[in-house]
Structures are given as structure tokens and as C-alpha cells.
Design goal:
The protein is an alpha/beta fold. It contains 14 helices and 19 strands. It binds ligand BES, manganese (II) ion (MN) and zinc ion.
Length: 498
């Protein structure tokens, strides 16, 4: 795991070491324990703030080197803005801002985890700790020369100074498992495609067995037997055989219907015979971002022993041009029995999902299923990189996802489905075709998927804009963002546990 920061907790009274971080509001006011530690340096802060126009705006940081009167190597004051208006995501951001200030040779960091207007709740402390770890992540596995002073070269210890150490530790444990899940997802997305092909991906997913997750791997022969002709057609041009992986975590009531998560795992998408242009094709190593999220989520749920029955299912293929590859004009038969005319071999994600969704609907019979897929470029045109596109046949599930999105900061925006769109994927030779033309490209893709969910409550998240290559933020500096792990962990925690 490319995890640079260790987070621990100490009492307020412990002498701070390394970098000292303190929070102030937009009136440059500190909490009581923080004021105590700063002592005479409070005046220094006032002068430095005036000199650098620091006004305590939320997330702004004032950096004072070798502060007089303090043992700290640096004093970093982070603004909270108006303290009464703070939301949980702000604390995640503060952790991220603090981690962004870590530098080699500063001897670690102590954060006075106190609001300007008093104590932090357990949830707020935990969010700071999570933000620290999320921000400090760096994928540097393949850099043989690490530069000094690079964030990645750091192995820093960060202490959060709190009133109640035992309570803080207890609250942080489950949240830290969720961060581990995000990091697993990021690692998978960032891995190069020569390393992470379907079999290797299945192997990594199988490591969840250590946490008590039952992992079943379907090979090509097993998938043939099930009739997964849509998924297998995508993989047939690759020298790397396809896999489907089903992960089961049974932390809930015995026999209770599970919640299910399905991921698109195209380990590399060249487009196939309908080959993509060369520009940025390397990004298509991230076309398994949905599957990566599902593995990260299953890790989070199992590691924090979530009281839920959950199934994760991922379709793993490589989409390559080859003498054996699928052609435009081919007609494949999906596991559902429905036939599909291939118009464009680059619309492969929906073919993979068609069989995995059907498998889960029929074999798992879940309470609901949510699929995640880097499915269409069109969703980036529509929503950019701030929201994932959400399509659903169930208003309750859609509303819960929207709420979990707002709470976690991994936002979704609901898009329409409707029978009017069906004619765009009518085929003159088969039950349907795999593309619907340029207009409404994300919608026709979702409309296609809906044909493979039967009556199961379902939501589809098109994460092409959010899973990879999104702009860097206070809590993510990585190309692969791990999008969806915190969103879906939140969904489960809020509604489906216990
Ligand atoms: N994996 C791509 C979608 C994608 C593009 C994700 C860019 C992330 C960044 C998907 O398989 C694809 O190629 N979709 C086509 C569909 C079209 C052929 C109907 C697209 O969006 O152009
Ligand atoms: Mn494609
Ligand atoms: Zn793709």
C-alpha cells in the first residue's frame, strides 16, 4: 500500500513535536486548549496573519517557520471560516490541507484537533485523520529514484491531540479501514495494464479472503457454461483470459438478501477492432475503475465488520484488436438469452456489465444492485469531473445515493432513463445493438444496461469523469481517485446495517 502517513492520537497536554497545526476561525480565534499551547505565540500569529493577508478563510493556511516561543519546527494555522457553519466534509479537507504541508525533515506533525468554538466530535476528528491519509497517498511503486522533499518520499507520523484518546482511537478504526479501501482502489486504477490484467486482478481481489470474504473466480470455461457470450465476446481478442469474480461478505442476518455492487473491469480498453486514436489511450488502463471501487468497498465493509450481507461482482476483460477479436457486425448471445448486434467494439463496457448484472440479479437475488463503470466519454461532456452520472429504476435508492454523495463529497447527479430512448438501440438483426449514436450517449448506454437487471432495484453510476484523471483536490493527489468507495460505504452505513 502506498501509504505515507501514520495517524495516532495523543492528549492535548502532550508536548507537540515537529510541525504544529492549529485551527482558527475567521476572527483568528483559537479554541481554549490550542490557545494554551500557543501561549505568547498567539501574538506572532496575529502579526504573520496581517503580513500575509490571512483571514482564517476555510482551508486557507498560514505557514510560520521556526515560530518564536514554540518548540515546533513550523506552526501552520488552518482557517475554518465561520466555525458554526462547519460541515463534516470540511474536516476531511482540513486533514488534507495539513497533510499537504508535510515535508521531509520536519519531524512529524501534531495537530491540535480542536475547533475554534470548542471540542470536535468523534466524527470530526476521524474525518481529519481520514483526510490526512487520503491526501498523503502517492503511487510511486515504479519510481526507482525518489527525490528528497517529495511527498512520496515521506514516511511521517502525525498525532492528533485530543481530549479523549481512547474514544478517538476507537472511532478512527472503522474509518481507517474505509481509507484502506480507497487506497486499494487507487492502487488498482494506477497500476499499469501489463501488470494488472484480468487474472492478476482476480488474484488481488482474492486477497479479500484474509478478511473472511468468500471469493469465487469464474474462468472462461465456467463463463461459457453460464452462457456469458456478451462478456466473453469482448475478451476474445486478448491473449489474457477473462475472469468474473464474485465476493461475498456475510456480516448481516443469516439468510437476509444481500446488497450488491457490480463493477466494470476492463483492464485495458484499446477499443478493439473499432480502435481508439493513440492520444491518451494510456488512460484506458483505468477502465477498470468500477471494479477497483467494488474491491475497495468490499475491503472496507469486511475490515470494519459491517453488519450487512454484501456481494461484489466484477467482470474482468481486456479489449484488444486481434485475429480473434470480435468484429462490428457480430451478434452475441448474452446470459439473459437476449442477442446483441455489435456495432462498435469500443462500446464494450455495457457488454461486460450485461452478463454480470444478469448473473447477480438471477443468482444472488439482491435487495438492490449498484453498478459502477467508466462507461462513456459522453458523461464527461455532460457532467465534467464533479459528479458521477446516476441512472436508476428506483427513486428510493436514487435518493439515498444522492444523499450519501452529498455527505461523502463523492457526488452523483441523476440522469434520465425512459422507453423513448429504446428505439435508439433497436437493431435490424438482433434484439438490440450495442451503441445508440452520439446523442444522449450516456443515456442509451444506461438504457442498454437496464435490459439486464430485470426487476431488481438498480442504480448505474457512470464514473468515467470521476474515477481517474479528475483534477487534484485537498484529499486526492492521485490519478486514480478511488471514487465510489466512501460513497457506497456511506450508503451501506446509513441504511443497510444492523
Ligand atoms: N472506456 C470507454 C469510456 C471512457 C472514455 C472512459 C474516456 C473514460 C475516459 C468506453 O468503453 C468507450 O469507449 N465508450 C465509447 C462508447 C461509444 C463507442 C458508443 C465512448 O464513450 O466514446
Ligand atoms: Mn470502449
Ligand atoms: Zn471502456
Amino acid at each position: 500500500m502506498s501509504d505515507a502517513v501514520k495517524v495516532g492520537f495523543v492528549p492535548f497536554s502532550t508536548a507537540p513535536r515537529g510541525i504544529l497545526v492549529a485551527f482558527c476561525d475567521d476572527g483568528l480565534k483559537f479554541g481554549p486548549a490550542t490557545s494554551n499551547v500557543l501561549g505568547a505565540a498567539t501574538d506572532l500569529v496575529k502579526r504573520a496573519a496581517a503580513a500575509s493577508q490571512f483571514k482564517g478563510k476555510s482551508g486557507a493556511a498560514l505557514d510560520i517557520l521556526a515560530p518564536e516561543g514554540l518548540k515546533a519546527s513550523r506552526l501552520i494555522v488552518i482557517g475554518t471560516g465561520k466555525a458554526s457553519a462547519l460541515k463534516i466534509n470540511d474536516f476531511l479537507k482540513f486533514g488534507g490541507v495539513a497533510a499537504g504541508k508535510l515535508a521531509a525533515g520536519n519531524g512529524g506533525m501534531t495537530i491540535m484537533a480542536e475547533r475554534p468554538d470548542g471540542a470536535m466530535t468523534g466524527e470530526q476528528l476521524v474525518a481529519i485523520g481520514s483526510g490526512l491519509r487520503l491526501r498523503a497517498y502517492k503511487f510511486d511503486r515504479y519510481k526507482t529514484k525518489k527525490k528528497d522533499g517529495e511527498e512520496g518520499a515521506l514516511r511521517a507520523d502525525v498525532s492528533l491531540a485530543v481530549a479523549d484518546v481512547a474514544a478517538a482511537k476507537k472511532a478512527f478504526a472503522p474509518a481507517s479501514h474505509v481509507v484502506d479501501g480507497v487506497i486499494i482502489a487507487r492502487d488498482l486504477v494506477n497500476e499499469p495494464p501489463n501488470v494488472l490484467y484480468p487474472e492478476e486482478f482476480a488474484k488481488r481481489a482474492s486477497q479479500l479472503r484474509k478478511l473472511g470474504v468468500a471469493v469465487e473466480v469464474l474462468d472462461v470455461k465456467a463463463m461459457h457454461k453460464l452462457g456469458m457470450g456478451a462478456l466473453l465476446g469482448v475478451g476474445q481478442g486478448s491473449a489474457r483470459p477473462s475472469r468474473t469474480v464474485i465476493m461475498r461478505w456475510n456480516g448481516g442476518r443469516k439468510g437476509a438478501a444481500p446488497v450488491a455492487f457490480v463493477g466494470k473491469g476492463v483492464c485495458f480498453d484499446t477499443g478493439g477492432i473499432s480502435i481508439k486514436p493513440a492520444g491518451s489511450m494510456e488512460d484506458m488502463k483505468g477502465d477498470m475503475g468500477g471494479a477497483a471501487c467494488v474491491v475497495g468497498l468490499m475491503h472496507a465493509l469486511a475490515a470494519r465488520k459491517a453488519k450487512v450481507n454484501a456481494v461484489g461482482a466484477i467482470g474482468l476483460v481486456e479489449n484488444m484488436p486481434d485475429g480473434n477479436a470480435q468484429r462490428p457486425g457480430d451478434i452475441v448471445t448474452s446470459m439473459s438469452g437476449q442477442t446483441i448486434e455489435i456495432i462498435n467494439t469500443d462500446a464494450e463496457g455495457r457488454l461486460v456489465l450485461a452478463d454480470v448484472l444478469w448473473y447477480v440479479a438471477k443468482k444472488v437475488k439482491p435487495k438492490f444492485m449498484v453498478d459502477l463503470a467508466t462507461l462513456t466519454g459522453a458523461i464527461m461532456v455532460a457532467l465534467g469531473t464533479e459528479h458521477a452520472g446516476m441512472f436508476s429504476n428506483n427513486d428510493e435508492l436514487a435518493e439515498r445515493l444522492s444523499k450519501a454523495g452529498a455527505e461523502s463529497g463523492e457526488k452523483v447527479w441523476r440522469m434520465p432513463l425512459g422507453p423513448e430512448y429504446d428505439k435508439l438501440i433497436d437493431s435490424q438483426f438482433a434484439d438490440m445493438k450495442n451503441t445508440g449514436g452520439r446523442h444522449g450517449g450516456s443515456i442509451t448506454a444506461a438504457q442498454f444496461l437496464q435490459r439486464f437487471v430485470d426487476n431488481t432495484p438498480w442504480a448505474h453510476l457512470d464514473i468515467a469523469g470521476t474515477a481517474m484523471g479528475a483534477p487534484k483536490t485537498d484529499i486526492n493527489q492521485s490519478w486514480g481517485s478511488g471514487y465510489g468507495v466512501r460513497l457506497l460505504d456511506r450508503l451501506v452505513a446509513d441504511h443497510y446495517e444492523g
